Amino acid sequence: MMRARRQERADALVKAFAKVYPEAHCELGYSNPLELLVATILSAQCTDKRVNMVTPALFKKYRTARAYAEASQEELEKEIQSTGFFRSKAKSLRAMAAGLVAKHGGKVPRRMEELIVLRGVGRKTANVVLGNAFGINEGVVVDTHVMRLSRRLALTSYAEPEKIEKDLMKLIPREKWADFSHWLIWHGRRRCYARKPDCDACEVQHLCPSAFKAVKPA
Ligand code: SF4
């Protein structure tokens, strides 16, 4: 019974969000798979807006995987400093790029198994690249917004990203996986804030079991 209700809610949310955010898309700036992979690595613990301030100059300077692989750690650190955790991000970028050069002729692979073995690339990053740069729905991107909203909308009761992703993959039609995570991310940024969700103005309030309840920050 509960499962059936959850599925009904998921179906209704897909319809509702498609109308509310028809233009939803990845808000990181990129023009090819390598740029998106780099931007996604930089976006850990950082806003897309800040990443987008850094990447235009970075993408102009480093046009290939080899260019990142051969970059000096110090120089790269300086260039990405404002995104935070710059030492480990610079290390990840150089090692990830070296992996692309060594195993994939400098190209970004299109398979989950090949992406997640690259340094700094987890399932979330791989899903971002597959879903947005290649249009391949291999999984659902579960970031902090998707985690919080999936729980508030009672699409999952889990707190772990991998388990939330499995629940969403069961509930949402595969062709909508990339869209659905964009919708939750957009809604999380524009309406369903972590601390004080704007339930009064929420477009999916009628479908939300957490509407107007004291919602604990997820
Ligand atoms: S009703 Fe409130 S808690 Fe539910 S999705 Fe909308 S803003 Fe978030």
How does the SSE layout of this entry go?
Layout: H1 2-20, H2 33-42, H3 48-61, H4 65-69, H5 73-80, H6 86-104, H7 112-115, H8 123-133, H9 144-152, H10 161-171, H11 177-190
This protein binds iron/sulfur cluster.
Structure report:
The protein is an all-alpha fold and 218 residues long. The chain is built from 11 helices and no strands. It has helices at 2-20, 33-42, 48-61, 65-69, 73-80, 86-104, 112-115, 123-133, 144-152, 161-171, 177-190. The two termini are 26 Å apart.
Q: Level of helix content?
A: 55-70%
Strand-residue proportion: under 5%
Which blocks of ≥5 consecutive residues have pLDDT under 50?
none
Instruction: Describe the largest sheet.
Output: none
Helical segment tally? Answer: 11
Report, as a whole number of angstroms, the end-to-end distance.
Answer: 26 Å
What order do the helices and strands follow? HHHHHHHHHHH
Ligands in the structure? iron/sulfur cluster
Q: Radius of gyration from the CA trace? A: 18 Å
> What class would the helix/strand composition place it in?
mainly alpha
Shape: elongated
Q: Report the mean per-residue pLDDT as an integer.
A: 96
Number of E-type strands? 0
